[in-house]
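Encode chain A's predicted structure.
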Amino acid sequence: MLFRKKKDKKPSNIAMMDSKINEEYIEEKVTKIRDEDVELVMENEEAISKKLSNASPLRKYAELGKIMFAMLKDVKKGTYPNVPWFTIASIVVALLYVFNPFDLVPDFIPGVGYIDDLAVLSIGMGWIETDLHKYLDWRLAEGEKV
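Encoded structure for chain A:
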């Protein structure tokens, strides 16, 4: 046999991350979000947006990040009411996770540093996709640009 499948004695960083980042992990974090966390995200909008735009694996989320920040601002101003707290908390968890450079897989690790960020963003966006579409429809009806 020319090619043997290697048996890893220790799980790789990616395998460990896959087992830790799942819907239950993110849902647990979402249930712990407070108003102060929303404020923290809003205060760091520029840094979070910059990270989404400059980290090539996260670039596809740069426009979504703008939409999420616009939604949070409109909710805070009271111009876009009736958003479920779960949606707000999901946005905050995703953006805070991206903002934190020392998460489950630190961002400075070449090649795999952003995999966990992508997982959190993807899971969170899957949960709130309908609410984001409703928000964008509302913005279009109001004649506003994001």
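Residues 23-142 form one domain.
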